[in-house]
Specification:
Radius of gyration: 16 Å
Strand order of the largest sheet: 1-4-3-2
Structural class: alpha/beta
Helix content: 10-25%
Distance between the termini: 28 Å
Largest sheet: 4 strands, mixed
Number of domains: 2
CATH topology of the largest domain: 2,3-Dihydroxybiphenyl 1,2-Dioxygenase, domain 1
Length: 140
């Protein structure tokens, strides 16, 4: 079955972001740099250490991917309309609350993660890398 996965773009912070997300969500992180890619033409020394493709596979089955643009391609910054949503049911409340708390490090909190008027736990923040996150946990 096909999966829909967030793929985040960075100018030059993909490694730091993915390592931070791994510290929050756990899981296995794999990173390939532009310098490791065989046959990649015209990569400057400065770009060789940048992430060509990074992937975090979490214990809960989530996959988060990211890459840097470096100097070889135009960088398009994330907009406020691009959001990573971390959602679940009541059995996920503790794990999602913990992830929200860890992602607050250096973040701007938009809405605190708390019980919302419609009965779910809900919150929003923009993390220290400028990525917008939404959290929603269905009521029991």
């Amino acid at each position: 079955m096909a999966k829909l996965n967030p793929y985040l773009g960075f100018k030059d912070q993909a490694r730091a972001a993915l390592e931070f997300y791994q510290s929050v969500l756990g899981g296995e992180l794999s990173i390939m740099t532009f310098g490791e890619l065989p046959g990649m033409p015209d990569v400057s020394d400065a770009d060789k250490a940048l992430v060509m493709h990074g992937q975090l596979d979490t214990p809960g089955g989530l996959t988060l991917m990211a890459a840097d643009s470096g100097s070889m391609m135009p960088y398009v910054a994330a907009t406020s309309g691009v959001t990573v949503a971390l959602t679940g049911d009541a059995t996920d409340l503790d794990a999602i609350r913990a992830a929200y708390g860890k992602l607050l490090d250096g973040a701007t909190e938009t809405l605190p993660f708390e019980l919302a008027p419609w009965g779910d736990y809900y919150g929003q923040l923009t993390d220290k890398f400028g990525i917008s996150w939404m959290f929603d946990v269905g009521a029991p």
